[in-house]
Amino acid sequence: MASIETFDRPVYVYEKPVRLWHWINALAIVVLAVTGYLIAWPPVVTAGEASDHYLMGYVRFVHFSAGYVLAVGLIGRAYWALVGNRYARELFAPRLHDVHWWQALLHEVRWYLFLVEEPGKHAGHNPLAGLAMFLFYVLGSLFMITTGFALYGEGLGAGSWAANAFGWVLPALGGSQQVHSLHHLGMWYLVIFTLIHVYVAVREQHLSRQSVTTTMIDGWRVWKDDRP
Amino acid sequence: MATTARPDTFYDVMRRQGVTRRSFLKFCGLTASALALGPEFIGTIAHAMETKPRTPVLWLHGLECTCCSESFIRSAHPLAKDVVLSMLSLDYDDTLMAAAGFQAEAMLEDTMQKYKGRYILAVEGNPPLNEDGMFCIVGGKPFVERLRYAAKDAAAVIAWGSCASNGCVQAARPNPTQATPIHKVITDKPIIKVPGCPPIAEVMTGVVTYMLAFDKIPELDAQGRPKMFYGQRIHDKCYRRPHFDAGQFVEQWDDEAARKGYCLYKVGCKGPTTYNACSTVRWNNGVSFPIQSGHGCIGCSEENFWDKGSFYDRVTELNTFGVEANADKVGLVAAGAVGAGIAAHAAISIAKKKDHEKETQE
Ligand code: HEM
Ligand code: HEM
Ligand code: SF4
Ligand code: SF4
């Protein structure tokens, strides 16, 4: 596919719903990581009557609300993969069976290792980015949603929708305490993705042969040169 | 009292043990409320006790510390204890029965034959499977053989405590004797797990009474525990919960917050991850329970609780990966390494770009 793409005029890559989703999702993840960390390491004791405060209650409420935003957002994004443009599908379906894709991926790896002078041009994700998005973001957030709602079901109680839908996760992963630990570890998995992702998005905007960060803002991929 | 060959009912046995009718009815009332059944069930229970032939209970002991028995015989309400003990009449319990030696073994045989397919087998402790089960010998034979034998014709099996339900401390890593919970050895019978180290006395008598009175197994959750006692976490009904929601935590065992009775979450309370009835039923006649006396829950009724890191850490060690580190240590090291990598990569990228610009200018 990559070979028949045109690199001489801008391409409309990320449609409005995708861009909207991206920024809402990014916000949700940041909020989840901060509130999640506070759930594990709550801030210093407040004095006075218990009825005067609801700190942990608010932190958990924000965490669960952002959790719903993440989950509903991902469902919406999956729907858009079905009805949106071809680039909307890339997130969920890295082209693992395509030799050209692997070659282009290798080229990107070499670009990051400073072994080649120039990266390739890609209207959608470059293959390396696409693979990372899938492995880290798609699988990572599915894991966080599954374990998160399993823990959430414990609070809602037996018979609640979350306990019914996700309750099986707890014994399957070794019990509630273990699921807490794994959910916590999952946070770091996504934090690491976010660190690299943001660095790369900014770096590619400046050093690659195409727009990157601005593409997620206005949707258009613009090229810095007209070579293939 | 019946003189015909009619089999004994529970009521017959109780009366013979000197339980008055008044006490009997009180017991039925107590049981109904302990099981959270409405008053209309008092009659049902009484009727069942008066008419149903007594179901014998065989109680085996494997690799264990006997804390379940100790808990059981201290059941809060003396009435409940008397009645349940006479009701069970524990046809065979090597710890509690009067008979010993060959006489005792004969009684086991006798009950198994006479009540084939109808008796309840209660198991305290578990069988170690390593070395053909030689780590636990009862009556001259490996316990695992005795367990299989006694379970063969049982109607149902009760797994008392964390030992029988999950393996408990004798199954802690590296589990040299290969102590194994009951459900992994007996796979063809309904098994009721009553975890806890030990389980609460009222929970134990409640489960037994329910099974004997209604002739059926209480409703179980996905892991085989009676829903009525294991349906909620300690945390869900903990009286310190308002402090948790407020964000008022004990930071150290001797701080002001500890004296004020704040939530024990930050000093490792496992209430949020432990399913048991301690915060509602409590212990020793409902006097107290660990959290009420100022110590966090250690999660004794959860699977592998001894292998899940310190009792005093909130974020516990991840023994899964064979390293002594919690999620934050692993995460911080990984994120730190990635951060350093990014910084180095960025530096090189900028240097290269500058070089490149210089070259193109020249
Ligand atoms: C990127 C996604 C997420 C991150 C980074 C995240 C992070 C965290 C962290 C670090 C904890 C503390 C774990 C511990 O050490 O005990 C936590 C707890 C929790 N999270 Fe998440 N989480 C995410 C998604 C979700 C989702 C989608 C839900 C679903 C509603 C959820 C529900 C919960 C619940 C119920 C708890 C336990 C709260 C408690 O025990 O009081 N999380 N989360
Ligand atoms: C300030 C922070 C962020 C910036 C500047 C940023 C920037 C970008 C950019 C420029 C793209 C498009 C890449 C391309 O052109 O091929 C993108 C895509 C993406 N980003 Fe971010 N991002 C940020 C935060 C996040 C966070 C926190 C997450 C989630 C952990 C995330 C997940 C994704 C995903 C999944 C895509 C793929 C979108 C798709 O194909 O639908 N981003 N991001
Ligand atoms: S003391 Fe333990 S069980 Fe009670 S509210 Fe605090 S964390 Fe939950
Ligand atoms: S409070 Fe926790 S550790 Fe203590 S007996 Fe109950 S379940 Fe076991």
From TrEMBL, chain A:
UniProt function note: Probable b-type cytochrome.
Name used for this protein in its record: Hydrogenase 1 cytochrome b subunit
Statement: the UniProt record of this protein carries the keyword Nucleus: no
Topology of this chain in the membrane: Multi-pass membrane protein
PANTHER family: NI/FE-HYDROGENASE 1 B-TYPE CYTOCHROME SUBUNIT, NI_FE-HYDROGENASE 1 B-TYPE CYTOCHROME SUBUNIT-RELATED
GO MF annotation list: electron transfer activity; heme binding; hydrogen:quinone oxidoreductase activity; iron ion binding
Family as reported in the entry's similarity comment: Belongs to the HupC/HyaC/HydC family.
GO biological process, one term: respiratory electron transport chain
A Pfam family per the record: Ni_hydr_CYTB
Cell location: Cell membrane
Domain of life: Bacteria
Organism of origin: Methylococcus capsulatus
Sequence ranges assigned to domain Cytochrome b561 bacterial/Ni-hydrogenase in this UniProt record: 13-219
Main subcellular localisation: membrane
Cellular component terms per the entry's GO annotation: plasma membrane
Keywords associated with the record: Cell membrane, Electron transport, Heme, Iron, Membrane, Metal-binding, Oxidoreductase, Transmembrane, Transmembrane helix, Transport
InterPro entries the UniProt entry points to: Cyt_b561_bac/Ni-Hgenase, Di-haem_cyt_TM, Hydrogenase_cytochrome, Ni-dep_Hydgase_cyt-B
SUPFAM superfamilies: Transmembrane di-heme cytochromes
Transmembrane segments: 20-40, 61-80, 128-152, 185-202
Entry keyword Nucleotide-binding: no
Known EC number: 1.12.5.1
TrEMBL record, chain B:
Residues involved in [3Fe-4S] cluster binding: 278, 297, 300
EC number: 1.12.99.6
Cell membrane recorded as keyword: yes
Cofactor(s) this protein cannot do without: [4Fe-4S] cluster; [3Fe-4S] cluster
Keywords, in A-Z order: 3Fe-4S, 4Fe-4S, Cell membrane, Iron, Iron-sulfur, Membrane, Metal-binding, Oxidoreductase, Signal
Residues in NADH:ubiquinone oxidoreductase-like 20kDa subunit domain copies: 65-210
Gene3D superfamilies: Cytochrome-c3 hydrogenase, C-terminal domain, NADH:ubiquinone oxidoreductase-like, 20kDa subunit
EC class of the enzyme, as a word: oxidoreductase
Record keyword Zinc present: no
Gene Ontology process terms (BP): anaerobic respiration
This protein's name: hydrogenase (acceptor)
Record organism: Methylococcus capsulatus
